[in-house]
Amino acid sequence: MENNKGRNIPALLQHIFFRQKIDYSCFYVMIILITIGIIMILSTSSNVGFTNFSDSYFFIKKHTFFLLLGIIFFIAGVAIPHEHYKKIALPGIIFSIVLLTLTLIPGIGIKAGGARRWLNLGLVRIQPVEIAKFFIILFLSTSIVNKGKSISNFKNGLLPILVLLFIPLLLILQQPDFGNSVLIMSVSWILLFTGKANIYHMFSLSSAALISITISIMLNPYQLDRIIGFLSPWEDPLGKNYHIIQSFIAVGSGGIFGLGLGQSKLKFFYLPLQYSDFIFSIICEEGGFILALFVISLYGYLLYKGTKIACQSESEFSFYLGFGLTLLLVLQAVVNIGAVIGFFPITGIPLPFISFGGTSLITSIYYIGVLLNISKKTKKLRADAKQ
Amino acid sequence: MNINRARLRFFLICFYTILCLIVVRLGYLQLFKHNFFLQKSTSQLKKIIKLYPNRGNVYDHKNKPLALTTTSYSAYTMPSQIKDKLEFTKKVTSVINSSQKDILKRINTRSPFVWIKRKLNSTSYQKLLDLNLEGLDFIKEEKRVYPHNNLAADILGFVGIDNQGLGGLEYKYDSLLKGSSGKIILEGDPRGCRLITGSKKTLPPNDGKNIITTIDEYIQYIAQKYLKEGVEKNQAEAGHVIVMNPGTGDILAMADYPFFNANQWSKYPVHTRKNSCVVDVFEPGSVFKVFTLAAALEENLFSYDQKIKVPEKLKIGRHTINEAHARKDGESGIYSVSQIIEKSLNVGSSLLAGQLGKEKFYEYIKSFGFGKQTGIELPGESSGLLRHPDKWAKIDLSMISFGQGVACTPLQIATAVSAIANKGLLVKPRIIKYFTQETDQTMKSIPKKTVRRVIDKETALKVTEVMTNVVKQGTAVAASLPGYNVAGKTGTAQKAKKNGRGYEHGKYMPSFVGFFPSYKPEVLILVVLDSPKKNYYASLSACPVFKKIALATADYLNIAPDYY
Question: What is the Cα–Cα distance from A299 to A206, expressed in whole angstroms?
Fold first, then answer.
């Protein structure tokens, strides 16, 4: 970045995107997924928009706004050398804790659908958990690197990391946001697992996670309902399990080639949140098995590429950050898709890049930007090595 | 780098396995179970809206409406939407005629839909509309209306709250009047709205058919007016009138007092709502003598002016036949056959029947249509009571010859007499001329039907002459009309007990049946009064009713007089 000082902005952009070799494959994957997302949001949200806000384009307008914001974040992600993030790992996690605490305060925190997940910032609402996710990954990456070999020592290595990890996790569970808690726990677990943590410690951690999940379920009976419904969806097809059954019908009626774009029937209020949580059901209905397979392959490819970029990076920190962000994206996709086809309970995790959603969309785009930045460094390093 | 590649690889394998499982699951849902889910999707999308047909109308033979349908509004509520049930009830009961307790009870329910009042009249509807009550809503419904209230109500019948025919023509031709409902099949969302992209298929309803009856609105009115007057004047329990065209069998009017208002049928007892003219039987009495005479003349046993000796009393076995009126002093016992009928002599008709014998007499009665339904297009017709001669006691032949021990409906009498008026040809009575489509095209007509020849033309003319004499100089002088030859016969039957054993003391069924002009008859009128407290002789009770109806009808139909 030091080299860039004194250049004008177009030259800077040119430098960022063209002069240095960047692995663009993740970027292309993201563009395809966002395109599919725009088409699907147009198809699924127009009726809700028209019914609730007298504007068929209500959702796509907002989505476009978030996409434009996303471009700024993307450029920032690509431009800011990711090594710099190390410095803000600790302040970042404290910032996340503050944000998550704010959701609990009435007035600032918005309660919707029985959960306090949003912060009201006047014009926009943000979901602090999406921001917290990035900082938690960052914090973990930094900590694993800093602890080095001492991570296999529980008292001095793992425990301090876990303590700082559990504070935001508890706050997220408090909202309650069961899906994101499990997601963060899973990503953390995998990062620590690949980070040479002691395998016995990891299993103790898993038990602890199971206990906290059980407690969360006991505290929120609606989660229990969802899990029971997930296990036997045909038992109450018009009651508790209505949504998952409707999702099956959408997915199943698509067949191989689907009903055609815009031809979904279930999007007319049979499925709830057909433009976010259940958007994959409509993809299956309109695009059939072919489109569904294509979307899944894209996420699969993203995992492959992201892991590769991480592995080829020059530092351990880059690896954990790149791998962590890749995991976060792909795991969200798996949880979302798995939920609408009945593999997992429905948790309200959006499908990255495709689902309508503000904070989630912007942060996802940002992650790709950071990944691209990590790949940039890699190429530069290789070029140096060659010379 | 200090990363554990083996652990990373292990994790990646797990992850891609999960992705593969997801694909397998998708394949199962989308390829293997595709038809199952497609069918589920189609069936939950399919919404059917029922389209109700309009009920057909009933008209008189000049296309004047007797039963119509109009739109009316029914008030209903979804109790969950009512905020203050007490207030709601108070406001509603201020308009409609229901107790607050009743309405409160009805809306205090978990049922999602409750009728407040169905088929409101226009003023109550307007008032309820003006209340602008939350939770109160209206549905447009079809309401059956009988514009003339009790006119021809026995013929038309009535309908239930859902327009289902419950009596008369409404019942008999319910499926025809009702039509068949249509439907719209479309794709809808769970809120019941139609999908913009969905398909729509409309199967229009078939409206009900109209019925054109043979009834004449005016004659029906006349008949009902004078029947009521006659019943009230003679303090009778009930009365029946049939006006028909003897040549065609067309029923021009049929009335059964006490009347009921078909618009408010539920306020009347069941026995009032039935059409006694076709449903109930009575013993016809002396009216029956004309059939005895017709049979005797047809068999050439007597000529109508033949003189025979008629004793005052006739002993058959343990029973004695008496005359209704004691014979005057000095009156000779020799009467012509014609005079037997003119003076309505029971012993005389017994003698005529005696000559005929059981079997032949029975065959003639049967041939006149007794003991069998006439086949008129009205529900619940009785076939009357005519026992087989094998089961007749010795006395029965005589009894039946003057109309006791046999029971028939008023319509059977009218039909049988019309065979005499019609020169011996028995016609099937009809009350429906034709049915029309909703486009007023004739769909199906009920043809005039000659059933059979009962007696020769000459015999019929002779009987007509005797009946004309009855009015001219016999028991029915009260029924004579200025300018017309009227053929008729009175009857004053004893009223049989309901259990069929013997007769009710002091209760009579005076009746008169007549047609005019005698030799080219256009109208036949039957009047029966049930148990009048005054004037139980037909000449004083039934004949005046006949005369009034006949005069008005002759005037209305412009029947040319026989003499001036």
Answer: 26
Q: Which of B23, B29, B189 sits opposite A296 (nearest CB)?
A: B23
For residue B532, cis peptide bond before it (omega within 30 degrees of 0): no
Asked whether A1 and A81 are in contact (CB, 8 A), the reply is: yes
State pLDDT tens for residues B186-197: 888 877 677 777
Numbered ranges of CATH 3.90.1310.10 in chain B: 50-77+112-213
Q: Do A296 and B37 touch (CB under 8 A)?
A: no
pLDDT tens for A64-80 read 999 999 999 999 998 88
Q: What is the pLDDT of residue A229?
A: 64
Closest partner residue to B30 among A193, A288, A316, by Cβ? A288
* Per-residue DSSP letter, A3: G
- Tell me the shortest Cα–Cα distance from B16 to chain A, in angstroms: 7
Domain boundaries for CATH 3.40.710.10 within chain B: 217-557
Is the CB of A252 less than 8 angstroms away from the CB of B36? yes
- Contact assignment for B45 to A265 by CB distance below 8 Å: yes
A292/B18 Cβ within 8 A? no
Distance CA B259, CA B224 (A): 8
Quickly state the pLDDT bin for B215 (edges 50, 70, 90). Answer: very high
Q: Where are the domains of chain A?
A: 22-380
- Residue ranges of alpha helices (H) inside B440-537 are 457-473
Provide CATH code, domain B217-557.
3.40.710.10
Identify the closest residue of chain B to A254 by CA–CA distance: B30
Tokens at B388, concatenated? 């087989």
Q: Distance (Å, rounded) from C-alpha A368 to C-alpha A78?
A: 8
Encoded amino acid at A280, one letter: F
Q: Is B190 on the interface with A (CB under 8 A)?
A: yes
Residue B444 sits at the chain A interface (C-beta within 8 Å): no
Q: Given the DSSP bridges, would you call strands B58-59 and B200-203 parallel, antiparallel or unpaired?
A: unpaired
CATH of B50-77+112-213, one of 3.90.1310.10, 3.40.50.920, 3.30.360.10, 3.40.50.410: 3.90.1310.10
Tell me the Ramachandran region of residue B149: left when phi exceeds 0, alpha when psi lies from -120 to 50, beta otherwise: left
SS3 A122: coil
